[in-house]
Structure to design on (572 residues):
């Protein structure tokens, strides 16, 4: 039961100190600070006092979940990162706070990830991974013409993959921007590794989401509605529109899946803030390299000018970013691998949802309140 | 899972120093080290000397530090290897390695001399928002509890399923973690009620 049992952290998105230069560390700390501030404001306005403990407990849950190893081929094993999962379960704003706290404790207590690089890590893992993945989750769930639970599992699987890959790309951008390793090396290495890691993350995210759906569907209602960080989490009602449902201290549980009617009402501007931050990060960290212009600073200035006009930059960002780097063949090959990976992840998530989701209906109707 | 604090500590001057000062000093030290030029030179001796002195003053056991430094090497090397692949960044390799290790050493001394609850107090004095503080405190409190719960569930699973098939292992783990989340949510409810019973807010 000693320290030896601590899992090895194979993912290399946790940037240690000493890799980023001053400008990159400052830039990413600024963007991350803005994101955390936004999340704090949203959580303050929507969180009931009774939901306060859930944030801390969820952070401990992410940490504990990272201790269980999923077997991968050849005796190696990987573990969950948990950003996208947290966002799906609790909503994006709460997920940003939860992941930030996880990163702070990992840095200060377990020396996992640097102090100066904390801002960069928060930006990659809490904002890009969690919110970027959550955005894709919401988008897919709305577009998928499937039965509700199946769509959730499918979207969760793909979002888990997507968030991981997106975060690895901003991480590569930060490394390249600080001159640690050139983009033509960092991008293929990080992206290719995380296309594979992302497959495991997506699968685990889908499986865990399904397990929660099966055991206690109303726990997911908060994340699905998106209006409240985890508004119905404890109250468990379907009143998606009412931020503070008036009720006494009793924790009565009803089936929360009926209450997602007000889905997009309050949540669109909230997601928009995080979307803007993510695209800002992509523009600052990735655009200078992915664009054909050689001069980095000039490219940033140009791209920043761009950012004002581009209306839906969140989904445009990664796509155009994948297509552009024809600078050398390795980057191009990585881009192709990314597209193929995305298609495979899409098909895989769909197959997973078809395979697993039929089993969801029976327990949900019989015992909506779980144990 | 054991948190580092549970090990016995000496009571040196550094242990008694105000945590806020230590936190800020660590931040300054890490920043200074990380911003050194990317060439190994005599400049690197300065943070090394400061850290060496602090190490001696804090009476941190060698084994304690080495084990944690070793654990950190895997991901430092992972990223540092990236710079070896390109000729332009290659000269920075030893410098980057020393920088990272010095920074980790700074955090190790901080962690050795300052238990996390004291760091939380320091963060409060530095005006970290209260939502974050409560979350951090609760997380730290329930980390061993939930880690133990996860291990217990995993052990129960291992003693009941004998399949070595990977598909089943993944499905089982997914189910375990899903159930762990449900239990976490239930625990959060109970904790809230307990907090209220003790006069929180």
């Amino acid at each position: 039961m000693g320290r030896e049992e601590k899992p090895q952290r194979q993912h290399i998105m946790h940037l240690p100190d000493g890799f980023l230069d001053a400008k990159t560390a400052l830039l990413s700390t600024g963007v991350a600070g803005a994101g955390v501030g936004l999340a704090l404001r949203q959580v303050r306005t929507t969180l009931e006092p009774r939901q306060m403990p859930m944030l801390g407990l969820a952070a401990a849950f992410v940490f504990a979940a990272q201790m269980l190893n999923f077997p991968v081929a050849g005796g190696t094993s990987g573990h969950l990162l948990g950003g996208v999962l947290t966002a799906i379960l609790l909503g994006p704003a709460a997920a940003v706070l939860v992941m930030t706290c996880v990163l702070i404790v990992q840095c200060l207590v377990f020396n996992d990830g640097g102090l100066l690089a904390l801002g960069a890590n928060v930006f990659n893992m809490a904002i890009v991974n969690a919110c970027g993945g959550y955005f894709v989750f919401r988008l897919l769930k709305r577009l998928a013409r499937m039965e509700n639970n199946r769509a959730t599992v499918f979207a969760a699987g793909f979002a888990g993959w997507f968030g991981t890959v997106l975060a690895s790309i901003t991480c590569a951008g930060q490394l390249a921007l600080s001159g640690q390793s050139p983009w033509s090396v960092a991008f293929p290495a990080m992206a290719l590794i995380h296309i594979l890691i992302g497959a495991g993350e997506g699968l685990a995210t889908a499986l865990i989401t399904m397990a929660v759906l099966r055991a206690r569907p109303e726990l997911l209602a908060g994340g699905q509605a998106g209006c409240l960080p985890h508004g119905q989490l404890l109250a468990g009602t379907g009143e998606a529109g009412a931020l503070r449902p008036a009720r006494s201290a009793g924790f009565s549980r009803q089936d929360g899946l009926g209450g997602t009617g007000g889905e997009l009402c309050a949540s669109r501007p909230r997601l928009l803030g995080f979307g803007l931050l993510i695209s800002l990060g992509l523009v600052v960290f990735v655009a200078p390299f992915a664009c054909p212009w050689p001069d980095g600073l000039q490219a940033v200035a140009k791209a920043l000018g761009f950012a004002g006009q581009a209306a839906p930059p969140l989904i445009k960002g990664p796509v155009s970013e994948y297509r552009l780097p024809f600078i050398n063949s390795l980057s191009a090959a990585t881009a192709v691998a990314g597209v193929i990976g995305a298609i495979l992840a899409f098909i895989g998530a769909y197959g997973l949802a078809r395979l697993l989701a039929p089993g969801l209906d029976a327990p949900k109707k019989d015992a909506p309140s779980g144990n | 899972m054991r948190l580092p604090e549970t090990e016995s500590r000496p009571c040196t001057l550094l242990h008694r120093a105000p945590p806020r000062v230590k936190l800020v000093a660590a931040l300054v030290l890490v920043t200074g080290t990380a911003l050194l030029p990317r060439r190994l030179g005599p400049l690197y001796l300065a943070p090394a000397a400061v850290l060496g002195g602090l190490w001696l003053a804090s009476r941190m056991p060698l084994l304690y530090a080495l084990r944690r430094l070793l654990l950190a090497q895997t991901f430092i090397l992972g990223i540092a290897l990236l710079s070896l692949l390109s000729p332009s960044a290659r000269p920075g390799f030893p410098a980057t390695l020393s920088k990272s290790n010095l920074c980790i050493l700074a955090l190790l001394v901080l962690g050795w001399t300052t238990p996390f609850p004291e760091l939380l107090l320091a963060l409060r004095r530095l005006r970290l928002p209260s939502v974050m503080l409560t979350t951090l405190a609760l997380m730290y409190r329930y980390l061993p509890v939930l880690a133990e719960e996860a291990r217990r569930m995993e052990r129960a699973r291992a003693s009941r399923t004998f399949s070595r098939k990977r598909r089943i292992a993944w499905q089982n783990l997914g189910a375990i973690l899903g159930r762990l989340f449900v239990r976490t949510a239930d625990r959060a409810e109970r904790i809230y009620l307990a907090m209220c019973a003790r006069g929180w807010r």
In short: The beta strands of chain A are 70-71, 77-78.
